[in-house]
Specification:
The complex is a heterodimer of chains A (328) and B (359). Chain A has 328 residues and is mainly alpha-helical. Chain A is built from 12 helices and 4 strands; from the N terminus they run ααααβββααααβαααα. Chain A has one domain: ABC transporter involved in vitamin B12 uptake, BtuC, CATH 1.10.3470. Helices cover 70% and strands 4% of the residues of chain A. The model of chain A has no long low-confidence stretch (mean pLDDT 87). With 359 residues, chain B is mainly α. Chain B is built from 14 helices and 8 strands. In chain B, a hairpin with a 4-residue loop joins strand 1 and strand 2. Classes of the chains: A mainly alpha (328), B mainly alpha (359). Chains A and B meet through helix 4, helix 9 and helix 12 of A and helix 6, helix 9, helix 11, helix 13 and helix 14 of B.
């Protein structure tokens, strides 16, 4: 089996999800320069709502695809509502406030959402019902499951849809105008409040779908799942250049692949027994095919963050981010 | 009022000194009062004071120099682990604390520069994510450096850490002194109060010093600051190093008080918490930051002890787990405070002016 290709496939799957979540971060940031710390929790709520619906319908005799679609269909409006509500209540009143104030309310909202979810869905790790038969295809020595394929296809479709929305529709034009200059956009007759609310809702809808996909992929959901996922996705958005829509897509996919490759290879690369003179230095632990692994696969997150830091040090505004003129 | 709260100038009014004496008297008497409510409260106060130290350290980076740091807890962790490894049976080392604390502070400062140097060019949110990543990296290392060579003992953490000790005088044991019973936590409490007072004084002096004004200039407009001849590179690194030093010292004290540390104490949520303290209190304003830290560490504890009895009184039974309610209320408090006081509870003079100008 080709480990490299396998890790790339796993990475692409995960990266596609990261990209979709990252879009939510980047769109909000592009328009109001806010890191929406609670976005990861929206993903979690999406997964939880879908899980509840799928569980309820699992024995109804409907076809698995219909059940998953129904779950997603319920998760999307709930998440959109959550996204809209938090913009309306926690961020809109602070639009003219000092920059860090909305960051703190975002943290507050994130705590609230997490613990509301804890109230509703308990603190247990919930098993995501496996109603779709897992089928595995073999491609050039690597395995790819139908779930992975579906995730990649859906993500690509959603990204394409979003690109059309942002670059081809009136709402998209209004969003881009607001991102460039809210005051002038307002003077041109754009209802800025509506555009911003729409941005939050769209991001939340994407997050809902991402939540369902993550849940199906890993087979579990828990009320804390949003934070680490949000963190990764946010890193991905920054990696691509925050505020930049194609950047978030690129950053997400890259983040996923880097992480998967890192997890797959870091252990064997840092096995000191592979290197002749070091192996002699270590001696007995390397004898008989022993290992002296400096960094095992539990360092995979370090790898992801290290790449992020390295990229930002070399390109301070991310891969596709524009070099913002320093404000005078 | 604001003027009076600054460190006194030469013509300090008598009011200032009497207020100071009053505060000092309250601080001295507090642990005895708290012991009556429950000994746990002295420990809680100690943790709150540690948070005050952390918040004041972070305030240098975020409040003075305007560099958003979301990985600050890493320095706390570095300080704590330095102390733990040099004064516990883990390596069989038992150095005295006055040797280790400076070492821990120095190592933390080194980490601060390590973080600061590559990120000098980054701005705003890019800086935030890099510091966040840095904090996570440090935590993951602490969590995993137990193999192949056991350095940090991994997720189990380091235990049986030595308390502070000067000859026969140990901070951990109970003693009778002038007819008063001094428990271990009470002794640490006094130590922490002295430490906090020192750091507060240092912060106040820094604020209007040449360095403090240079930081303020960098925060407001880095290019203009450079044009005015401020060495921005050196001063930004100095801010990181200084903030990290305070974090490192607080970490050392934390390790000695708890006598046990594990990577779980140095997670992202803790960094976020310290940032919240700084911003909620009013960043850049030393007294605001102290207030923010005290509020955010005491309020959850008070809720912890009052939510369950309150539910019993109202409904006759516990409807919702107190832990959940505590965090929910905490989240709402964060949101509401920021909605009603966007510049923090006690905004610094500069922020207040900015806000007035914009609206």
């Amino acid at each position: 089996m080709d480990i490299f290709l396998q890790q790339v496939i796993n990475g692409l799957t995960l990266g596609a999800v990261y990209a979709v979540v990252a879009l939510g971060y980047t769109m909000v940031y592009g328009i109001i320069q806010l890191i929406n710390f609670a976005h990861g929790e929206v993903v979690m709520i999406g997964a939880m709502v879908a899980l509840t619906v799928i569980n309820a319908l699992a024995k109804s005799g409907l076809s698995p695809v219909t059940v998953v679609l129904a779950g997603t269909g319920c998760a999307i409006p709930v998440c959109m509502l959550v996204g809209y509500a938090m913009e309306r209540l926690a961020y809109r009143p602070l639009r003219r406030a000092p920059r860090l104030a909305p960051l703190i309310t975002a943290i507050g909202v994130s705590i609230i959402l997490q613990h509301l979810a804890l109230l509703v869905w308990s603190r247990n790790v919930l098993a995501f019902p496996q109603i779709v038969d897992l089928r595995v295809f073999h491609v050039a020595g690597a395995r790819i499951s139908n779930v992975q394929l579906a995730i990649i296809v859906v993500c690509v479709a959603m990204m394409a849809g979003l690109a059309v929305l942002v670059y081809r529709t009136r709402l998209g034009a209004a969003m881009r105008a607001t991102a460039q200059n809210p005051q002038v956009a307002g003077l041109m007759g754009i209802d800025i409040d509506r555009v911003i609310a729409a941005t939050f809702a769209i991001g939340a809808a994407l997050a809902a779908v991402a939540g369902v996909m993550v849940g199906t992929y890993y087979g579990v959901a828990q009320y804390t799942m949003g934070s680490i996922l949000g963190l990764k996705a946010f890193s991905a958005a920054v990696l691509g250049g925050i505020g930049n829509v194609p950047g978030a897509m690129l950053g997400g996919v890259l983040m996923g692949v880097v992480e998967a490759l890192g997890a797959g290879y870091i252990g064997s690369f840092t096995d000191l027994c592979r290197y002749g003179w070091l192996a002699r230095l270590i001696g007995e632990r390397c004898a008989d095919g022993g290992h002296f692994v400096l960094f095992g696969s539990n360092y995979q997150d370090v790898f992801a963050f290290a790449v992020l830091i390295l990229v930002l040090v070399l390109r301070p505004s991310g891969l596709l981010g524009e070099r913002v003129g320093e404000r005078a | 009022m604001r003027r009076a709260l600054r460190l006194p100038d030469r013509r300090a009014p008598a009011v200032f000194w009497s207020a100071l004496a009053l505060v000092a008297a309250v601080l001295v008497a507090l642990p005895f009062a708290l012991t009556h409510i429950g000994t746990a409260w002295v420990r809680i106060s100690n943790l709150a004071l540690l948070y005050v130290l952390l918040a004041l350290g972070l305030n240098i980076v975020v409040g003075f120099a305007g560099l958003l740091d979301l990985g600050y807890i890493a320095f706390y962790g570095v300080g704590a682990y330095t102390y733990a490894l040099l004064a516990s049976p883990h390596f069989g080392l038992h150095l005295p604390f006055w040797v280790i604390l400076p070492i821990g502070a120095a190592i933390a400062a080194l980490f601060g520069v390590l973080l600061g140097a590559p990120t000098l060019k980054l701005r705003g949110d890019y800086l935030a994510i890099v510091t966040l990543g840095f904090g996570e990296i440090v935590r993951i290392f602490l969590n995993n450096l137990s193999r192949p060579v056991n350095i940090t003992n991994g997720p189990q953490g380091v235990y049986r850490i030595d308390p502070f000790r000067i000859d026969g005088f140990s901070f951990a044991s109970t003693q009778r002194f002038l007819g008063l019973e001094l428990s271990g936590p009470t002794k640490y409490y006094y130590l922490l109060v002295v430490l906090v007072a020192l750091v507060v004084a240092l912060n106040l002096r820094l604020q209007n010093s040449r360095i403090g004004r240079a930081w303020e200039a960098i925060r407001e407009d880095e290019i203009a600051a450079r044009a005015m001849g401020i060495d921005t590179t050196r001063l930004k690194l100095l801010a990181y190093a200084m903030g990290a030093t305070f974090g490192g010292i607080a970490g050392g004290v934390f390790a000695a008080i708890q006598q046990f540390i594990s990577p779980e104490s140095f997670v992202l949520v803790e960094s976020v918490m310290v940032v919240s303290m700084v911003v909620l209190g009013g960043m850049g304003n030393v007294w605001g930051v102290v207030l923010g830290a005290l509020l955010l560490s005491f309020v959850p504890e008070i809720l912890r002890y009052s939510v369950a009895p309150l539910q019993h009184a109202l409904f006759g039974r516990t409807l919702v787990a107190p832990e959940v309610i505590r965090m929910l209320l905490f989240g709402f408090a964060l949101v509401l405070v920021m909605l009603f006081r966007p510049a923090g509870l006690l905004p610094s003079a500069v922020r207040k002016r900015e806000l007035a100008e914009r609206t």
